[in-house]
Structures are given as C-alpha cells and as structure tokens.
Give the backbone structure.
Amino acid sequence: MDFKWFVGTDVSKKTLDVTLFFREQGDKSPHKQFGNDDGGYRSILGWLEKQGANPKEALFCMEHTGAYSVGMAEFLEHAGLAYSLVSPLHMKRSLGLVRGKNDKVDSYQISRFCYLHRDELPPKTLPLATIRQLKGLVNERERLVKMQTSEKIVFSELAKANTDSTMKRVAARIAMFSADIACIEQEMEQVIGSDPSIAERYKLIRSVVGIGLVNSALFIVYTCNFQAFTDARKYACYGGIAPFENLSGTSVRGKTRVSHLANRRIKVSLSNAARSAIQHDPELRLYYDRKAKEGKEHGVIMNAVKFKLITRVFAVVKRGTPFVKMRLAG
C-alpha cells in the first residue's frame, strides 16, 4: 500500500507525543500530546482528521518500547490501521547528528524516519495472544531464575559469613523459587498445548537433541511460531550466532567475530543447549572433538554447535517430521 501520511509517535508510560510529518514544514510539522490510554488513542484519530489526514491512508510509526507501546499497537490493529514498530537502536543510528532531546523532537524524528524509510517498513501485526502469554511466562521464569541463582551463591559460598537463621531463610527462598519455577514451566506447557499449530511445532523442536522447554519456547516466541523468521541464518544473526568479517582496505585485518548487536537471551539459552547436545548427541560430540584436535578455540566450536542446533530446528519445522540421529554417530 502507498501511504500518504506518516505519523510518528513517541511512547512513554503515561503520554504519547504525536507528529504528523509534512516535508515542507520540517520540524514545524503539527504536533500534539495525548494520553497513553484508549481515550488518547481515539483522540489521535480525530486530531489527524482535523489536520486533513485520513488515518486509513497513514502509516503509524513507533519505537518498540515493550509494554508501553502494546496498547497503542492493539488499538491500531483492531481499527485496521497500518503501523510499524522499530528498534530504538535502528532509529537512533539512522537519524544522523541530532542535538538536544525531548518528547516533541523525538516524535518528529520518528515521523521523519517513517517518511524516509516508508518503502522499508512493512506494516506489523502483534503476535498471537498465545505467544504473548508464553513470552510473559518466559520473562517471569527468567526473573525467578536470576533471584534463585543469587540465593544459591549465598548458600554455597557465604554460609560462614551468615548466621544459621539467615541460611535457613535462604534455603527456604531457594525451595520457594524452585516450586514457583516448576509451576511456571507447567503453565508454559499448558499454554503451548492450547494452540494446535504451536503444540505441533513444539514437539518437532523438542525432538532436536539438546533443545528443552525454555529454548523451544524462545524459538516459538521470537519467530512468532516461525512466521517472523523462516530462515535459519537470519535467526542465527538475530541471536548473535552468525560471525561477521572485520576487514577494510589493506590495513584492517581483524578477526571474524559475532556481533554484539544481538538478542543475548537467545544466545545464552543456546549455550546451555549446545553443552547438553555435545553430551547426549554422539554426532555433535564427535564434531566437537574433531574441531578441538584441529586447534579450534572452545568458543568458536560452541558457536558452530549452536548454529547446527538452529539449522536442525528450522529443518524439522520445515520438513514436518521429528529429528533423527545419524546411525553412524550412534
């Protein structure tokens, strides 16, 4: 669709700063602040019509700010209006030299970005409610695991520095976290099982040796059940697994490394999966030993194993059949 109007929205917890971009007016383009609630969303549409813009012919652009931008995105989606959620880092690095910062300036910059990159910003849709619910459970589990890890460190390494009563409370908290984590994991499986298409792909993902509940959930969440990512290499790049060259002219000859611009949650979880796969998959164990004998660094080999796991997951999903170990490897 060819959009005629470009609306930039700077999202905060309580307010939305909205700018309707006019190329001739530049940073003097119409701007107004609204509440970040249903009433504010409806008021935005009325304000745009007063400016002579048809919301049906507009592309709304926002930074992806997590929970604060979900309400606006849901409203636009239910109203049948086109919107795009953009990475804040992508936005920041594409604006060039910018002096000063406030919500009004940010909304203008977002609207200008929306206009300049209109051909590269396909309209977005929110993930299914099941996937959003699953992501919330993954986030909750991660928070509890971090708190539990902190308490385990106290229990194992700082016992002599604390009283017996303190250590009893620490042990009780560890047990409480374990119980809560088990409940969350059970609920994650229930949510996955409530959607037949997600449940089917979950079984395929779990068939890959080394991939457990958490990694399976992350694959489903971040690929939107393999709708947002259909290529293993692109997902590997997103997860910080794909290496990139560092070359320029004749003087710069840096090592090929993975980029720090990545989803670290995926990378860390895949590290756990890779360690498990090397232990339980004879093929990957032989691969690791062979590369180690060739003098490859441990981190390089582990990164390659992570990529193999990603390609296996995408292969079984595309094929629609579970993973099967190679007979020669055991």
Remarks:
- The mean pLDDT is 89.
- The first helix runs from residue 38 to 50.
- The first strand starts at residue 5 and ends at 11.
